[in-house]
Amino acid sequence: MRLRALLAAAVLTVSTAPAAGAVAHGSDVPPGQYGFVAKLAMTKVPRPDGSTYSSYCTGALIAPAWVITTGHCFHDAHRERVSGKVPYPTTVTLGLTDEETESGIARKATEVRQAKENDVALIRLDSPVTTVTPLSVSRATPKVGQQLTLAGWGSLTGANPKPATRLQQGTVAVAKVDPTTLGVRGAAPEITTSACTYDSGAPYFTGTQLVSLEATGPGCPHAGIETTSRADVIADWIATHTA
Hints:
Layout: E1 2-3, H1 4-11, E2 27-28, E3 37-46, E4 52-63, E5 66-70, E6 84-85, E7 90-94, E8 105-114, E9 120-125, E10 136-137, E11 147-152, E12 168-177, E13 181-188, E14 203-206, E15 209-217, E16 226-230, H2 235-242
Parallel strand pairs: 10-15
Antiparallel strand pairs: 1-15, 2-12, 3-4, 3-7, 4-5, 5-9, 6-8, 7-8, 8-9, 11-12, 11-14, 12-13, 13-16, 14-15, 15-16
């Protein structure tokens, strides 16, 4: 198991592979869909030796001025999750499916609020996004067998990963329900459809409701269980902080 955003730090500067589609063994998201999916680009992320690097995560708009993502995307030099002022420059882009043909809506992240119950963080934007409909947060307990859509900006493969330029999607099925996490498996287009490097924080949703967020999993692509953070167990916390 590994944290998808953290592995990326070690490989981004040495990758020479061409840009790959997000979500391993997924499919292209049609133009104009899933505008709520956010691509997070971070620079000057600190290492213990004082050097810095660039990295990426995925997230979802859940209120005009708030994006939800994985908590471990925002940390100090020792990989400890942080709250408060954003620890490094972070650009959040929404309303985008293809970076080569679209510009999207860019905002700067200004504040991080970490959840206590699971690996989730809320990111405040420097100004609201009013032209994209946010996801609502599901309060229903997920069920084994329930199918969810995953959409993200991660890499196609764990080998020489590179963030995507085209938003991808896939279908997964809930395989395990734990108190704060869900285990999911790929269902379509393939049983190996799975989140990959830079997909940390990618939303798993049904219709317009957020069910969980990408946390960690085996090397991608894979047919095993991916660990995601449940949204329903922190729905009240989310509502309080984004009101």
